[in-house]
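Protocol step 4 of 5: obtain the predicted structure for the target chain.
Materials: sequence only (see below). No template structures provided, no constraints applied. The aim of this step is simply to have a reference model before the mutagenesis design in step 5. Sequence pasted as it appears in the construct record:
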Amino acid sequence: MLEDLGNFIMNILLWLYEQVQDLVQWFFDGLEYLFIELILSPVLNALASLLESIPLPDWFTHGTVSVGSAGYFIAMAEVPAGITMIISAYTIRFLIRRIPVIG
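Step 4 output (structure tokens):
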């Protein structure tokens, strides 16, 4: 009899705990919604409109880039070919290290 009463009280307390937990979760979900809708959304919209108001530079809209004398030295030093070789070397090194016997 006493054991049944203890189980009954324990079940009521567990139910009450779950209800309080659901209420707290509902409250924090509401706060999260309010924060996103009332604070974060207007700030992000204002930031987006600010970034959209910045005009594009002329070189971007025309599609050409004039690098002046630096372009000449980049072409003479074969920088694009060098970058390709470096990336290829790192890729081969990565693949060789994956081979169990060699790497």
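Step 4 remarks: The two ends are 72 Å apart (CA to CA). Residues 1-54 form one domain.
Proceed to step 5.
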